[in-house]
């Protein structure tokens, strides 16, 4: 494994759970004893705000990782910041991003990421937006040959009770198609416990929900395997 792993959580479709999964994956990695830094690039600063809230709730508890914000308005500042992290920080850097792909500061974030975790849902608009996002990243990779980012796709908020036969078949085909562009992680079920996440640790029920997905991601990152297209 590299000394430094840069992982961006992104999709242009809002509401798919990228912020939640970024935070919970940080909790997961910290519990494994990994060094973790979370950079909140999103203008809403949800993760940073959650950490400030947790400081009051869990007073005296050792913080498992650092959360910091960074303004992406200036592309050069973002590039310099991430280049320094990539060359100087040993551990996992998890980055939460805004959904607006028109922000220029996103380009160095994607370009310097080792992995792009792309949450989506089995819903027409979400799938369409994900396809557009894949196309956007493909164009970036064409423009920037040094860009070696690898996709990890995660179906989030999956309700296994829902879906007609034709829909179930379509969803399976969607995942099969996505395997041509990156790794497809096990699906994460829709559960109320997922809304109770924090920046300190995974609670018992949450751990059960996300472990199959996060175990897969962790294993693939630690021991990368070649894609079969």
Automatic annotation (TrEMBL):
Domain of life: Bacteria
Coiled-coil ranges (or none): none
InterPro entries documented for this protein: CobQ/CobB/MinD/ParA_Nub-bd_dom, DNA_Partitioning_ATPase, P-loop_NTPase
CobQ/CobB/MinD/ParA nucleotide binding domain span: 7-193
PANTHER family per UniProt: P-LOOP CONTAINING NUCLEOSIDE TRIPHOSPHATE HYDROLASE, PARA FAMILY PROTEIN CT_582
Protein name, UniProt field: CobQ/CobB/MinD/ParA nucleotide binding domain-containing protein
């Amino acid at each position: 494994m590299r000394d430094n792993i840069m992982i961006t959580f992104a999709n242009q479709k809002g509401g798919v759970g990228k912020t939640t999964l970024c935070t919970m994956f940080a909790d997961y990695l910290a519990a494994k004893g990994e060094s973790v830094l979370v950079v909140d690039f999103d203008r809403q600063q949800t993760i940073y705000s959650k950490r400030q809230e947790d400081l009051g709730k869990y007073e005296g508890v050792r913080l498992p990782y650092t959360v910091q914000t960074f303004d992406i308005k200036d592309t050069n500042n973002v590039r310099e910041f991430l280049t320094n992290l990539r060359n100087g920080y040993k551990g996992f850097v998890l980055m939460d991003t805004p959904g607006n792909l028109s922000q220029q500061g996103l380009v160095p974030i994607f370009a310097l990421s080792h992995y792009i975790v792309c949450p989506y849902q089995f819903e027409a608009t979400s799938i369409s937006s994900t396809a557009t996002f894949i196309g956007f990243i493909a164009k970036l990779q064409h423009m920037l040959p040094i860009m070696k980012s690898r996709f990890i796709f995660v179906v989030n908020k999956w309700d296994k009770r829902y879906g007609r036969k034709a829909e179930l078949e379509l969803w399976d085909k969607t995942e099969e198609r996505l395997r041509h562009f990156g790794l497809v992680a096990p699906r994460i079920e829709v559960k109320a416990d997922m809304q109770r996440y924090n920046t300190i640790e995974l609670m018992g029920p949450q751990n059960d929900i996300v472990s199959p997905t996060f175990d897969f991601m962790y294993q693939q990152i630690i021991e990368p395997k070649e894609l079969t297209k």
